[in-house]
Specification:
The chain is of the alpha+beta class. The chain is built from four helices and four strands. Helix 1 packs parallel to helix 3 and helix 2 runs antiparallel to helix 3. The radius of gyration is 20 Å and the shape is elongated.
Protein backbone atom coordinates (compact mmCIF):
# COMPACT_ATOMS: atom_id res chain seq x y z
CA UNK A 1 0.00 0.00 0.00
CA UNK A 2 2.69 2.54 0.95
CA UNK A 3 4.59 1.74 -2.28
CA UNK A 4 1.58 2.87 -4.31
CA UNK A 5 1.34 6.06 -2.24
CA UNK A 6 5.02 6.84 -2.85
CA UNK A 7 4.62 6.09 -6.56
CA UNK A 8 1.54 8.34 -6.71
CA UNK A 9 3.36 11.13 -4.84
CA UNK A 10 6.35 10.90 -7.21
CA UNK A 11 4.06 10.96 -10.26
CA UNK A 12 2.12 13.87 -8.79
CA UNK A 13 5.28 15.86 -7.99
CA UNK A 14 6.82 15.24 -11.42
CA UNK A 15 3.60 16.06 -13.24
CA UNK A 16 2.92 19.19 -11.20
CA UNK A 17 6.52 20.37 -11.64
CA UNK A 18 6.40 20.03 -15.44
CA UNK A 19 2.95 21.57 -15.64
CA UNK A 20 4.00 24.58 -13.53
CA UNK A 21 7.32 25.05 -15.35
CA UNK A 22 5.50 25.14 -18.70
CA UNK A 23 2.80 27.44 -17.32
CA UNK A 24 5.16 29.94 -15.68
CA UNK A 25 7.72 30.11 -18.50
CA UNK A 26 4.82 30.78 -20.85
CA UNK A 27 3.25 33.43 -18.61
CA UNK A 28 6.56 35.20 -17.95
CA UNK A 29 7.46 35.25 -21.65
CA UNK A 30 4.05 36.64 -22.65
CA UNK A 31 4.02 39.30 -19.93
CA UNK A 32 7.55 40.34 -20.89
CA UNK A 33 6.79 40.57 -24.63
CA UNK A 34 3.45 42.37 -24.18
CA UNK A 35 5.02 44.91 -21.81
CA UNK A 36 8.03 45.36 -24.10
CA UNK A 37 5.80 46.10 -27.08
CA UNK A 38 3.56 48.48 -25.12
CA UNK A 39 6.50 50.31 -23.50
CA UNK A 40 8.45 50.72 -26.75
CA UNK A 41 5.42 51.13 -29.04
CA UNK A 42 6.80 48.63 -31.58
CA UNK A 43 5.22 45.92 -33.73
CA UNK A 44 8.23 43.77 -34.61
CA UNK A 45 11.61 42.99 -33.09
CA UNK A 46 14.24 41.59 -35.42
CA UNK A 47 16.24 38.75 -33.81
CA UNK A 48 17.99 37.32 -36.86
CA UNK A 49 17.16 36.51 -40.47
CA UNK A 50 15.01 33.54 -39.38
CA UNK A 51 13.28 34.74 -36.21
CA UNK A 52 11.34 37.88 -35.31
CA UNK A 53 9.31 38.71 -32.25
CA UNK A 54 5.96 39.88 -33.60
CA UNK A 55 3.04 40.38 -31.24
CA UNK A 56 -0.27 39.07 -32.61
CA UNK A 57 -3.48 38.62 -30.65
CA UNK A 58 -5.07 35.24 -31.37
CA UNK A 59 -8.78 34.79 -30.66
CA UNK A 60 -8.89 31.45 -32.45
CA UNK A 61 -7.19 28.15 -31.71
CA UNK A 62 -3.61 26.99 -32.24
CA UNK A 63 -1.51 28.92 -34.77
CA UNK A 64 -4.20 31.59 -35.23
CA UNK A 65 -6.70 29.25 -36.86
CA UNK A 66 -10.46 29.79 -36.48
CA UNK A 67 -10.40 33.48 -35.56
CA UNK A 68 -13.96 33.91 -34.43
CA UNK A 69 -16.87 35.89 -33.09
CA UNK A 70 -17.55 36.25 -29.37
CA UNK A 71 -19.93 33.28 -29.02
CA UNK A 72 -17.60 30.93 -30.89
CA UNK A 73 -14.65 32.31 -28.85
CA UNK A 74 -16.49 31.52 -25.61
CA UNK A 75 -17.34 28.04 -26.89
CA UNK A 76 -13.69 27.42 -27.82
CA UNK A 77 -12.62 28.62 -24.36
CA UNK A 78 -15.10 26.26 -22.66
CA UNK A 79 -13.97 23.32 -24.83
CA UNK A 80 -10.33 24.06 -23.95
CA UNK A 81 -11.29 24.02 -20.27
CA UNK A 82 -12.94 20.60 -20.69
CA UNK A 83 -9.91 19.29 -22.59
CA UNK A 84 -7.62 20.42 -19.74
CA UNK A 85 -9.78 18.50 -17.25
CA UNK A 86 -9.57 15.40 -19.47
CA UNK A 87 -5.78 15.78 -19.79
CA UNK A 88 -5.49 16.00 -15.99
CA UNK A 89 -7.41 12.71 -15.83
CA UNK A 90 -4.98 11.20 -18.39
CA UNK A 91 -2.06 12.38 -16.24
CA UNK A 92 -3.60 10.62 -13.25
CA UNK A 93 -4.12 7.40 -15.24
CA UNK A 94 -0.76 7.49 -17.04
CA UNK A 95 1.61 4.63 -16.22
CA UNK A 96 4.44 5.55 -18.61
CA UNK A 97 6.85 8.30 -17.63
CA UNK A 98 7.10 9.71 -21.18
CA UNK A 99 3.30 9.93 -21.40
CA UNK A 100 3.14 11.57 -17.99
CA UNK A 101 5.68 14.20 -19.06
CA UNK A 102 3.86 14.71 -22.38
CA UNK A 103 0.41 15.14 -20.85
CA UNK A 104 1.85 17.45 -18.18
CA UNK A 105 3.49 19.67 -20.82
CA UNK A 106 0.22 19.79 -22.78
CA UNK A 107 -1.75 20.69 -19.64
CA UNK A 108 0.74 23.42 -18.65
CA UNK A 109 0.67 24.92 -22.13
CA UNK A 110 -3.11 24.72 -22.39
CA UNK A 111 -3.49 26.36 -18.98
CA UNK A 112 -1.19 29.18 -20.10
CA UNK A 113 -3.31 29.86 -23.17
CA UNK A 114 -6.55 29.51 -21.19
CA UNK A 115 -5.29 32.06 -18.66
CA UNK A 116 -4.63 34.50 -21.53
CA UNK A 117 -8.16 34.00 -22.85
CA UNK A 118 -9.52 35.17 -19.49
CA UNK A 119 -6.91 37.87 -18.80
CA UNK A 120 -6.46 39.41 -22.27
CA UNK A 121 -9.55 37.99 -24.01
CA UNK A 122 -7.06 36.68 -26.59
CA UNK A 123 -3.81 34.71 -26.66
CA UNK A 124 -0.61 36.67 -27.40
CA UNK A 125 1.47 34.88 -30.02
CA UNK A 126 4.89 36.34 -30.71
CA UNK A 127 7.45 33.86 -32.08
CA UNK A 128 7.68 34.41 -35.84
CA UNK A 129 9.88 31.90 -37.66
CA UNK A 130 10.48 32.53 -41.34
CA UNK A 131 12.71 31.84 -44.29
CA UNK A 132 12.72 34.46 -47.04
CA UNK A 133 9.02 35.13 -47.75
CA UNK A 134 7.74 31.93 -46.06
CA UNK A 135 6.43 32.51 -42.52
CA UNK A 136 5.33 29.73 -40.21
CA UNK A 137 2.31 30.48 -38.01
CA UNK A 138 3.21 32.87 -35.18
CA UNK A 139 3.16 30.97 -31.88
CA UNK A 140 4.13 31.18 -28.20
CA UNK A 141 5.76 29.09 -25.46
CA UNK A 142 2.46 27.33 -24.66
CA UNK A 143 2.27 26.13 -28.25
CA UNK A 144 5.82 24.77 -27.94
CA UNK A 145 4.92 22.92 -24.71
CA UNK A 146 1.77 21.47 -26.29
CA UNK A 147 3.65 20.39 -29.43
CA UNK A 148 6.48 18.78 -27.43
CA UNK A 149 3.90 17.03 -25.25
CA UNK A 150 2.11 15.62 -28.29
CA UNK A 151 5.44 14.47 -29.75
CA UNK A 152 6.35 12.69 -26.48
CA UNK A 153 3.00 10.89 -26.36
CA UNK A 154 3.32 9.78 -29.99
CA UNK A 155 6.91 8.68 -29.32
CA UNK A 156 5.73 6.68 -26.30
CA UNK A 157 3.04 5.02 -28.42
CA UNK A 158 5.55 4.11 -31.14
CA UNK A 159 7.89 2.57 -28.54
CA UNK A 160 4.96 0.64 -27.03
CA UNK A 161 3.92 -0.70 -30.44
CA UNK A 162 7.50 -1.69 -31.20
CA UNK A 163 7.78 -3.53 -27.88
CA UNK A 164 4.43 -5.30 -28.43
CA UNK A 165 5.48 -6.36 -31.93
CA UNK A 166 8.77 -7.73 -30.57
CA UNK A 167 6.85 -9.67 -27.89
CA UNK A 168 4.53 -11.15 -30.52
CA UNK A 169 7.50 -12.13 -32.72
CA UNK A 170 9.30 -13.69 -29.74
CA UNK A 171 6.15 -15.57 -28.67
CA UNK A 172 5.72 -16.90 -32.23
CA UNK A 173 9.35 -18.05 -32.27
CA UNK A 174 8.89 -19.87 -28.96
CA UNK A 175 5.71 -21.58 -30.20
CA UNK A 176 7.40 -22.67 -33.44
CA UNK A 177 10.41 -24.19 -31.63
Amino acid sequence: MSGKIVQFNQKFFLSLSILLICFFIDRISKIYVVNLFIKNNVNDLYINKYINITLLWNKGIAFGLLQSETLVYQLITFIIFLIIIFILYLIYKSEKIIELIGFSAIAGGAMGNLTDRFYYNAVPDFIDIHYNSFHWFTFNVSDICISVGIFLILFSDVISLKNKNEEIINDDKKENN
